[in-house]
Amino acid sequence: MGTGVPLGVALAEVRDGLDHAALTRALDQALAALERGAPLAGVLRAQAGDARADAKRHLIELAGRKEIAMLVPLVFLILPVTIAFALFPGYLVLQAGF
């Protein structure tokens, strides 16, 4: 823009030059708002809300995958040791003949 290029053209060049989905979506909406004469603040506010919701959804999906991964040591390490500690004293008592 500092070289005299109109705002819409400059934003379109930035959008085409970068390969980032969220930025492309935001610039598309900003360009559409500029072309239609819509209030830019409302469009940017809605875009920020969408970005927050997308980040929240991504974190929830990541937490779901990590939750399954955390169950592996529990099921294969901690649970068998706990069961062995619970059953071993009874086995010793049965072997002793009480």
From TrEMBL:
<dbReference type="Pfam" id="PF00482">
    <property type="entry name" value="T2SSF"/>
</dbReference>
<keyword id="KW-1133">Transmembrane helix</keyword>
<keyword id="KW-0812">Transmembrane</keyword>
<dbReference type="InterPro" id="IPR018076">
    <property type="entry name" value="T2SS_GspF_dom"/>
</dbReference>
<feature type="domain" description="Type II secretion system protein GspF">
    <location>
        <begin position="4"/>
        <end position="87"/>
    </location>
</feature>
<protein>
    <recommendedName>
        <fullName>Type II secretion system protein GspF domain-containing protein</fullName>
    </recommendedName>
</protein>
<keyword id="KW-0472">Membrane</keyword>
<keyword id="KW-1003">Cell membrane</keyword>
<feature type="transmembrane region" description="Helical">
    <location>
        <begin position="68"/>
        <end position="94"/>
    </location>
</feature>
